[in-house]
Amino acid sequence: MWTTAKAPSLAEMEAMAHEVFARLPATFRALCEGLIIRVDDFPTEEVLDEMQAESEFDLLGLFHGIGLPQQSHGDVARLPNLVWLYRRPILDYWAEHDETLGHIVRHVLIHEIGHHFGLSDADMEAIEADAG
């Protein structure tokens, strides 16, 4: 078994993220209409600068868009909200901690979607427990 184990590709991790999303509470998912989930190896240099990250491994994910609390019906057409998961930093975190990869992906996904809703860390922990 261990001779065939390998890190997931970008496409495999994106599929995992969508599978994790599908298992989140229905009421939570319903509020995410139009949300796009993407996976890339690392954040862009622009994102690293904007987030004042010291290393390309500092960010596991990022919400990009206008959170629900800031949206209004009078908004002009805008780009869809995106959640980015960063594969290499997630794999690095996985290698250093005693958690499953699926659990880490779920945690990062919920945390980044939580920014979409303007949720507190306690709110996100409750959602993660429900998704358990």
TrEMBL record:
Keywords recorded for this protein, A-Z: Hydrolase, Protease
Family matches, as Pfam families: Zincin_1
Entry keyword Methyltransferase: no
Superkingdom to which the source organism belongs: Bacteria
UniProt xrefs under CDD domains: MMP_ACEL2062
Biological process annotations from GO: proteolysis
Record GO terms (molecular function): peptidase activity
Entry protein name: Putative Zn-dependent protease with MMP-like domain
Annotated source species: Bradyrhizobium macuxiense
